[in-house]
Amino acid sequence: MMAQVIEWLRERTKILKGFFFAFLVFAVVFDFLIERPEPHFWGDEIIGFWSIYGFFGCLTLIVVFKGLSHVWLQKEEDYYDR
Amino acid sequence: MTGSIFVHPATYFLLGAALLPLMGKLRLQKVWLILIPLAAFTQIYYLPESFGHVQYLGFDLVFGRVDRLTFVFLHVFTLMALTGCIYGLRVKETGQHIAAFLYVAGSLGVTLAGDYLTLFIFWELMAFASTFLIWYRKKKRSIEAGYRYLLVHTAGGLILLAGIFLLYQTGHDLSFGVFSQEGAGWAEYLIMIGFMLNAAVPPIHAWLPDAYPEATVTGAVFMCAFTTKTAVYVLARAFPGFEILAIMGAIMALYGVAYAVIENDARRILAYHVVSQVGYMVCAVGIGTTMAINGAAAHAYAHIFYKALLFMGAGAVLEMTGKSKLSELGGLYRTMPWTMIFTVIGGIAISGFPLTSGFISKSMIVQAAGDAHMTIILVMLLLAAIGTFLSVGIKLPYFIWFGKDSGIRAPEAPWNMQLGMGIAAFICIFLGFYPDALYNMLPYAVTYEPYTAYHLSETFQLFAFTGLGFYLMVKHMKPHSVSNLDLDWFYRRGAGSFMRFAEGPVNRTNEWVSNVYKTVGLRFTMASARAFSWFDREGIDWTLDGSARHVVRSGDRLRHLQTGKVQHYIGGAVAALLIVVLVAALL
Question: Least CB-CB distance to B466: which of A30, A43, A58?
Answer without folding.
Answer: A58
